[in-house]
């Protein structure tokens, strides 16, 4: 599915942006890069900024026109910072765009197209697109660097893919800590209550304070190890209080 | 609200990353930048990569320790590419992190902390944090460039803010095209039906074909101007068909 998603960069001026875009793509599982008439390519700046994504740069296809780059695609989304007067269907939210793009990519090639750093896409190039998307930004300063725009839209694309049941993406998680039983928690709270009384903080069982503390620890969800640690602390406090 | 959200960069190695991060911040409405012991700052690379966000770079506060940078904050989220063994509350999804961060920022300063390019944050620095967040990425290549990570988390932060009813963010939209009335649409479809028959495509009214075309145009939602254009085309076709 992600292999069906193509990133197309049109007439990129700075080769560094090509490298940084390749890196952005690869961190989000995308590898199909096509360059339309790049100004300077291949270039050492592209390789340098690519960091560990040089394979994406090296595998990039170079073509002369946007038409060649997307002719086999069933959906072509032009990323544009500026609203156009052409009434192409427009996604206000990259999230919505990504969900549709990934859905189509299940069966056919699709493309996300980015224009020149300064000038974006021409009207003719917009005509090669089926949709437009913009990244909602600061109204006073809303033009993202090209590779940053690639990163954001690639991020939303990867997110849309992850959230599909058929992607089978597994969130890496550290090994779960074991949780204490209700009985262990009760013993802990009783112990805490005894120490609060022994220290003179409470002169008698005080339901409200104890309930508040139970709520606090319920939110904290201490693991068994942590309860153990706290009970060790409570025992030391009990000893010190007795010695006074 | 957005002014309460601080971006903290710890011991950044490449000044270019400071500039690119400042630009990423500003596109997403964030301006409070704090640098903890940057290796090279001020630096022309930082200004160059900042593009139109030099004001954010120039206004950056420089401190010696992370503690100084965040002491007044009520929530401090450490951005970490690597899962830590320290059981700090962890956000799997930047989206969820951003919603909480923005909610707290309504009343108090909060911070998003980014570590060194190669080494991230130290365990002592993680201890200055209340939460961790990671950006879900390609398991085979998941380390985003520092300024790209800033862009993605700033983007989610701005999105969380926009989506709050109290932000009063207005999506810029081109002027709405007027929609045709049901009657105008009916006349269009009748006209289309006549042309299909006149051309020999249909030998008689064909409910299924007509219903399919009505569904297509219902999805396309032609504006009044577009219906007008189509009817002009249909009239020309009618004329040509008659002349045959």
Automatic annotation (TrEMBL), chains A, B:
Domain of life: Bacteria
Identification of the protein by name: tRNA (cytidine/uridine-2'-O-)-methyltransferase TrmJ
Originating gene: trmJ
Record flagged with keyword Acyltransferase: no
Alphabetized UniProt keyword annotations: Cytoplasm, Methyltransferase, S-adenosyl-L-methionine, Transferase, tRNA processing
GO MF terms, alphabetically ordered: methyltransferase activity
A Gene Ontology biological process term: methylation
Complexes and interactors: Homodimer.
SUPFAM superfamilies: alpha/beta knot (SSF75217)
Any single Pfam family the record assigns to this protein: SpoU_methylase
Record-annotated tRNA/rRNA methyltransferase SpoU type domain positions: 5-155
EC number, UniProt record: 2.1.1.200
Entry function: Catalyzes the formation of 2'O-methylated cytidine (Cm32) or 2'O-methylated uridine (Um32) at position 32 in tRNA.
């Amino acid at each position: 599915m992600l292999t069906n998603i193509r990133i197309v960069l049109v007439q990129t001026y700075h080769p560094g942006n090509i490298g940084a875009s390749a890196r952005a793509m690869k961190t989000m599982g995308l590898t199909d890069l096509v360059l339309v008439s790049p100004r300077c390519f291949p270039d050492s700046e592209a390789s340098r900024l690519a960091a560990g994504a040089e394979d994406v740069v090296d595998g990039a296809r170079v073509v002369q026109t946007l038409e060649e780059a997307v002719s086999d695609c069933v959906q072509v989304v032009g990323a544009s910072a500026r609203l156009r007067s052409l009434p192409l269907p427009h996604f206000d939210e990259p999230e919505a765009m990504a969900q549709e793009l990934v859905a189509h990519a299940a069966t056919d090639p699709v493309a996300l197209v980015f224009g020149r750093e300064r000038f974006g896409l021409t009207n003719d190039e917009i005509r090669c697109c089926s949709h437009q998307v913009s990244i909602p930004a600061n109204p006073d300063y809303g033009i993202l660097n090209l590779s940053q725009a690639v990163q954001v839209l690639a991020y939303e694309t990867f997110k849309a893919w992850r959230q599909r049941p058929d992607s089978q993406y597994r969130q890496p998680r550290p090994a779960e800590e074991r949780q204490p039983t209700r009985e262990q928690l009760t013993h802990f709270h009783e112990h805490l209550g005894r120490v609060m009384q022994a220290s003179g903080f409470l002169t008698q069982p005080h339901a409200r304070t104890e309930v508040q503390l139970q709520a606090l620890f319920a939110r904290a969800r201490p693991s068994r190890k942590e309860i153990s640690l706290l009970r060790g602390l409570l025992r030391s406090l009990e000893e010190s209080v007795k010695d006074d």
